[in-house]
Amino acid sequence: MTPDPATEQTWTVYGQRQLDRGYSPPVPDRIDWGFWPGVGPGAEILGDIRGKRVLDVGCGPGHHAVHLARAHGALVDGVDLSPTQYRRAVNDHAGEPGVRFHCGDVAEHLRHARPYEAAYGLRTFGCVDPCHLLPALREGLVPGAPLVFSALHTDAEGRGPSDEVVPRRGVVRLRDEEPIPVWLWALSPQLWEALLADHGFTVESAQLLGAPDGDNLAVLQLVRARRRR
């Protein structure tokens, strides 16, 4: 997702722990952009992607890419920096029609790939330096292509977003495991909109996704933008 060695290490450790546990998430019936099933829109926010080349930014174990290929007829390239996350994806979904997986920095991948007709990231944009990713997406998407992503707004401790493009320390939690340190970009909606505008995108919608019962303080942003023509 980003070439930063610390971020690569975080998701390599995470992926290895999931491999050690033998955990493979099932291919979902719908796309959930937040942490809570049924909260917010599904894949329809991407628009009509049947037959279109779609980029999954930080695809992890690949189950969302497979859903979009099976249920929506998309041709999905999933890219993840972590070799253990990539291994999870190919272990479970190698040979899946309409899906390809790549291990490496997504910005570097975009420099050599044919431009995509849509791109998305499920909870991954908060783990990427936007100044590294957004210029690559501007060049790697065709004019008019949708870009949809969810990113952290408020963390589980109730810390809200920043008005500066700076990362902060967080943790990735797995049940019965030591937390894994991670750098996070939790940015305000206004800052995301300004950054996207600076890099050739127009924000079409933005909404906040929270726990339906209100017991979890975490909130995610869901942003739909479009590459300007």
TrEMBL record:
One of its GO terms (biological process) is methylation. Keywords: Methyltransferase, S-adenosyl-L-methionine, Transferase. Coiled coil: none annotated. Pfam families: Methyltransf_25. One of its GO terms (molecular function) is methyltransferase activity. SUPFAM superfamilies: S-adenosyl-L-methionine-dependent methyltransferases. CDD domains: AdoMet_MTases (cd02440). This is Methyltransferase type 11. Gene3D superfamilies: Vaccinia Virus protein VP39 (3.40.50.150). Residues 54-137 form the Methyltransferase domain.
